[in-house]
Amino acid sequence: MCFSVEWIKEALIWLVIVLSVVAILRLLIPWVLGILGMPAAGIVMQIINIFLFAIVAIYVIVFAFQVIGCLLGHGGVSRLG
């Protein structure tokens, strides 16, 4: 199943979902922190941005190693979760 049309479709769908969730969180979190009146909202937002970046980076690394495994013939790509 490596690199079939279905595989490419699923990978692109996951990419859109992840990017959409990150974008929505980046919009909503500062708004919520402003409503709550957090005095250090900028620092909290930067911490959350780093956390989101780390999660996305981990999934990119997992995805890259699964693609390498697929190229080498050691199995297919799972759903990343």
Model description:
- The protein has 81 residues and is mainly alpha-helical.
- The model has no long low-confidence stretch (mean pLDDT 79).
- The chain has two helices and no strands.
- Helix content is 79%, strand content 0%.
- The chain has one domain.
Q: Helices and strands, in N-to-C order?
A: HH
Which structural class fits the helix and strand makeup? mainly alpha
Number of strands: 0
Which band does the percent of strand residues land in? under 5%
Q: Assign an overall shape.
A: elongated
Largest sheet: none
Number of helices: 2
Low-confidence stretches: none
How do the strands and helices of this protein lay out in sequence?
Elements: H1 5-36, H2 41-72
Helix pairs in contact: 1-2
Observed structural traits:
single chain; mainly alpha; 2 helices
The gist of it:
This protein has 81 residues and is mainly α. It has helices at 5-36, 41-72.
